[in-house]
């Protein structure tokens, strides 16, 4: 008898809980749809900006940078492994690589940990792959001298 009473109370409590939660679930669904409608224009704008960034990006003019790389070429080349190998090829710290690319050192660490950089940063990194270690070090030295 006690078990039957517990089962009935549980069943009734669940039914009442469902009745109380149902309107809230409908509101949540409505809010999600409204939010998606608000995000759509921003997403379209970001997509357009990303496509425009896929064109050739000019590297900072303070240093004589290597030939530019197209956005599609950079995206095809870029990988965490390639970034790490490039930094090892130049024998640079994250700070040195960051100076060449024009970002902060923690960005290099994040990219090496697997986070994807922006298309513009990818293009800058991919452009560096076409130069020698000596030229990279010379560019870094010029950059640091111009800041001093």
Question: What's a quick, concise take on this entry?
Answer:
By secondary structure, the protein is mainly α.
Fold and architecture overview:
With 148 residues, this protein is an all-alpha fold. It has helices at residues 2-53, 71-77, 80-90, 94-101, 105-112, 119-128, 133-147. The longest helix is centred in the first third of the chain and has 52 residues, at 2-53. The radius of gyration is 27 Å and the shape is elongated. It starts with a helix and ends with a helix. The model is unreliable at 54-63 (pLDDT under 50).
Uncertain runs are: 54-63
**How would you describe the shape?**
elongated
Give the helices and strands as they follow along the chain. Answer: HHHHHHH
DSSP strand count: 0
Task: Give the structural class.
Answer: mainly alpha
Percent helix? over 70%
Major sheet summary line: none
Overall mean pLDDT stands at 84
First CA to last CA: what distance? 87 Å
Supply Rg. Answer: 27 Å
Number of helices: 7
Percent of residues in beta strands?
Answer: under 5%
